[in-house]
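Predict structure. Chain length: 202.
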Amino acid sequence: MIKALILDYGGVLSYPQPAQAVDAMVAASGCPREAFVEAYWRHREALDRGLDPGEYWRTVLGEAGGRPQDAGRLLELDLASWLHLRPEMWDLAATFRRRGATAILSNNWPVFMTRLRAVRPLADWFDTVVASYEVGMVKPSPEIFHLCLERLGQPADAALFVDDNRDNVEAARAVGMQGLWFRGQDDLAPLQDMLKFVERVD
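Prediction complete.
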């Protein structure tokens, strides 16, 4: 029986980053699109580990050939791009919490988490939030999964981890957790079946 539901944020509790949001960042940066996207993701782990956002954007723009003076505009566009919430997943977490423990386990960065907490009081949905920059670890490190389980007070085999990154799901399974690779709306019904407590949403 699943006693703990652990959800990734980006791509699970939110929709994936919209293509038009990336277009807006590329336009604001003055960079070639391919160079911008490569640099944006290449340095994301450092941001998730706590790198200052200003330094992150200076590095991205420096590598991609952009305009450093536009870093503040890019920060705001980036923040907004990850705030398209997926309401059915928040409802799922709220329903599950009536009989089990819930957590967010996310590779994420301080400024964004501050913005998210301003939009949503996370304690209303989740018993704990494990954000990479706060704990000095990132998925798929096994240590971050063990920390989340410890905070929830649950053994690995009683927890279900849901992420849109397959490598992270495999890492969770490697430490003994159940896992679901979430690729979009079509995976909602299988998730509900695994939890076995809510009616399917058509």
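Summary: Strands lie at 4-7, 101-106, 128-131, 159-163, 178-181.
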